Amino acid sequence: MISSSCGGHRISLKRHDWKCLGTAVLLFSLGCSDSQQVAPVSGTITFEGQPLVGASITTQPIATDSIEVGSGSFGLTDEQGRYELELVKPAQKGAIIAEHRVMISHVAGNQTKDKAQTSEDGETKSWDDATVVKSGVARAWPLRYIDGSLRLTVPPEGNTDADFDLRK
């Protein structure tokens, strides 16, 4: 038996109790660690076969048996429609190894002016014809791309071909 004093109170624990307490503290600290299994994820987003420039992609792991699903990831597409995911927290490249809900949004204002053309009726049309803007407001982006119904599986080795070819 091991005895100790804490705040004027005498505490007595048997060796077995100390071992159980130590094991519980160890397991609790492992379960609460910030170390998440992360793998690199990148790909291309196209709309009607053309690179979708300035699109935002966000992912969120889907809960399975664990209460803690982990941090979501995000990325932005470049001029070729390529993106690379990065965790929201902690900031690091990649995504949690799991199945994810995916949301892809596109704001026509992300198009650069030199990539846009203006038609005779004053409507601005993006170079790749993916989005039409009139008076600064994009026409409705399909709900199915922002409602989380798209899926992405992130395997332990990562995925460098996480491509999305979106259609009207």
Choose one word for the global shape: globular
User: Rg from C-alpha positions?
Assistant: 25 Å
Please report which band the strand proportion falls in: under 5%, 5-15%, 15-25%, 25-35%, 35-45% or over 45%: 35-45%
Structural class: mainly beta
Question: Number of DSSP strands?
Answer: 17
Query: What average pLDDT do the residues reach?
Result: 73
Query: Level of helix content?
Result: 10-25%
Which segments are poorly predicted (pLDDT under 50) over 5 or more consecutive residues? 15-33, 109-119, 123-138
The major beta sheet can be summarized as:
5 strands, antiparallel
What is the count of DSSP helices, taking H or I runs of 4+ residues?
1
> Going across the major beta sheet, what is the strand order?
9-7-6-11-16
Amino-to-carboxy terminus distance: 73 Å
H/E series: EEHEEEEEEEEEEEEEEE
Description:
The protein is mostly beta strands. 10% of the residues lie in helices and 38% in strands. The protein has one helix spanning 15-31; strands spanning 2-6, 9-13, 38-39, 42-47, 50-51, 55-61, 73-76, 82-84, 86-87, 95-96, 99-106, 116-118, 124-126, 132-134, 137-138, 150-153, 164-166. The longest helix has 17 residues, at 15-31. The relative contact order is 0.20. Mean pLDDT is 73; it is low at 15-33, 109-119 and 123-138.
